[in-house]
Structure formats: structure tokens, C-alpha cells
Amino acid sequence: MSAELYKVLECPEMGRYGVASRDLRAGEIAYEDTPFAIGPSVGSAPLCLECACPVDGCAGGARCPRCGWPLCEECGAEIEASVYHKAECELFAKHEVKFQNVEDSSEACVQLDCITPLRVLLAKEANPDRWNAEIVMMEDHRAERDGNAFWKADQSNVVAFLRDSCGLKDRCSEELIQKAIGILDVNAFEAHTCSLRGLYPKMGIMAHSCVTNVAHTVHPSKGYRLIARAAVDIEEGAMLCTTYTHLLAGTRTRQAELQRTKYFTCQCKRCLDPTELGTHFSSMKCQKCDNGLVESTKPTDEEAEWKCTHCEHKLKGALIAKAIQVMQAEIDELAYMEYGPERLESFERVFKKYRSLLHPLHFINTSIRHSLIELYGRIPGYMMPELPDILLERKIELCKDILRVIDVFEPGKSRSRAMLLYELHAPIVVLAQSEFSQGSLGGEPLKKRLQEAVRLLEECTEMLEWEDPTTPEGTLADVAKQSLVQLKRTVQVLP
């Protein structure tokens, strides 16, 4: 990492945080970071403890030939080359700690919750200098954790298991194990398709905001190395901001998640604004007047009253929360439907159903749009060449609506933007081809339409090139490059 690109400051309100030590251009690497430890996320389904691919946790599933814990067949055949599983494997084998088969490999496997804290403890023993220099001062919020349900679960599921079953009683105190668990809960970042979490010391220093200016990628092929880039131009001295929660969730959801897992209330400009920076991402349509929007009078307070912007209509915060809970449950149910036409049509029905209740850019509508974008062009009866013009225009509209939100919450160069640009270019091209074949589009208008798609792909490929080639995004980068070459050739032969 280039030391001159960021520096660490400290204040009583925020603790340690990073600022740019000079002007950064959008796309420029701000810092790189290697994980102190990496392993399964809390609640992960059974996965290979070496490469993290999904495995069968039921009886008969692939196991490590030495310790019997989950390992895919390929990694099991190359056990001598094990990097991540090696240390815990020796411990499990020595103390005959057995993996208990599960009944459903699609559900959370609580046995794996011990793996990442164990790897932190083993990394501390193997690299005490880095632990003392980068990890030990990380916030673990032990005071807030003491006595709560999560602490008690950790105490029984992880602490006692590691000390008693795994033979760490003489090596690790209860306090040390709890510290490792707390540091992970507060500071770890999801590292690979949401199945792994990594403890990245430099990333952990960065301030949280619900509007980011730093984008990061994790590279499994490089030891899960994290590379953070400026998403937008950043001036010298400006705070470097990442997010500790899901940016496309509403304020109530983000605040609840941050309070539950990170033990603080976010006071960023988005959280303090009832309109979420003009997007109305959490606003409901007033049912008492024609033009009003119902917004929270204090977004950071879940019990605050909600009020219409045009009339005197008011609602209790609990009522809004209940309405959102019902809507979200209906959407979650659709996610379990078979991947096919009925699923797509059900999402469209629900989208239409909520039209009179929610602002067009509401986060519920945004989540439905994401599902529809994924389905249009990929399922039988709705494959891209089969889509009529009206549905091609529908997919274009869906993409542009989400981009309006992304441009506010995650501005500049980001993975989210790259993926949406790829989704957007395809219906633009197919629609242009359809209108050309019908004789309604040709000449310069056709060329301009295809040039627009070229620009989208150029921007998309620039950002996807930063992704690791072993990830789905990295694979898409190659596909996008090929599409760009072909599209450019088409444009070149047009008169």
C-alpha cells in the first residue's frame, strides 16, 4: 500500500478514521489490505473450509480426510496444499472434534460459527506482532455485548466449544475468545459472495456512511486481498467512507442493523434526511390526499411519528414498521418460488399492488426491480430475443430507476453500477435491432442507439476489470469485453 494515500486521525466521537492524504482521482487505489483471518460468515450454510464453495453437509458429503470437517473433493485430494484449513484441521484431528452431519445443507450450519473466531485466535499465536499492531485495539463493544442474547449464544456455542472440545483452555481465556468474537462482529467485512467474512485492519479503520466514496473488491485468487479505490474524486483531507450495512435498505432497517451489530446510531446526512437525499427511499404515499408523501419526523428514531408533507395526516412509527414488515414478507416468499415465468409474473403483480402505497423509488420497489432485472432475459418465455418491445422498454426503465438511486447512495465507480450498466446495455441493443427490422429505426438514429450501448459497456468493463477473475463479476468482465468488441464492430460497419 502507498502510505501517502491515506492517514489515520482520531477523535472522541468517532475514534480512529481515515482521510485522504492527497487528492484522489475516481478509480485510484486508496489502499490494499490482507486479512488477518478469514472464514465462514455467521449463519453460513455448509461450505468447504478451504475454498468456500458450497458442500453437502448431510451424511455422505465430502469431508476432510484428516479431521472429517467439510471440505470439497478437490481440496480434500490436495490436503497437503491446504492454506486456510490447515491449522484448525490439526487441532480438530488431535482432539477428535467431529463434525455433526446436518439435515439440510441449504440452511445455516451453526457448527461453522466457531471457525472464524478460531482462525483469529490461531493467527494471533502465529503472528503476535500483527495482532498487537493492528488488531488488539479494534473495538469489540464488550460492554454492550455483556449479558445480551448474542453474547450468551457465543458463550455456549463458541467459547465453551473452543476451550473444552478443542483443547484451548490452557491457551485462550474466555475473555480473549470473547474479544475475538466481538472484534469480528464489529469489524469484519463480507469477503466472497456473502459466505465468508474477513478481518481487514485497514478497512476497519474507515468511517461508516450510508453514502460511500470508497469502493472495495476482494480477490480470492490473491489470498483474499482487499483493494479499495476512490469511487469518486476525493479531496485531500476528506474522510474516506465505506458502509457497514446494506445501502439499498431503508433508514429504519439500516439503523436497526447498525445498532444490533455495530452498536451505534448512524448520523450521516442520508440518515438525518427524511427524504434520504431526495430519493424518498423510505417515503410512503399519503392515503388521505392526492400529492402528499408520508415521511418520518425523525428518521433515526424508530418510534418517531410519520407525517404527510401536504396534509395533516399522521401515522405512528410502529404502524409504518408493520406495513413494511408485511410487504417484505410477501416479497421474501416470492424469492422461494421456482426460477421461472411464474416467479417473474408474481413480482410484477406485487410491484403493481404496491404502486399506490409507496413512492416510486421506495426501497421495497427497488428490491422488486432488482429481482425483475435478473429475470427478464434469462427465463423461458422471457429470454432476451423473445421479449417484445414493450418488455425491452420495461427492463430499460427498471435499470434506469435503480441507477437513479445508486447515483445518490453509491456515486461514481462501483460494482453495483457496473452490473446495472451491463444489464441496461442488452435491452437497448435488442430493442434497436427490433426497431431496425421493423423499419422504424435506421441510419443515424440506429447508430446513436448502439453507440449509447457501447458507452455503457465501456464504463461497465472499466469497473469490472477490477474484480477477481474467479468471481462471478470477474467472469462477467470477460463476457462484457467480448460483447463490447462485437458491438463496436457492428457500429463501425454502419453507414
TrEMBL record:
Domain of life: Eukaryota
PANTHER family in the record: RE12806P, SET AND MYND DOMAIN CONTAINING, ARTHROPOD-SPECIFIC, MEMBER 4, ISOFORM A
Protein name per its UniProtKB record: Msta
Species of provenance: Culex pipiens pipiens
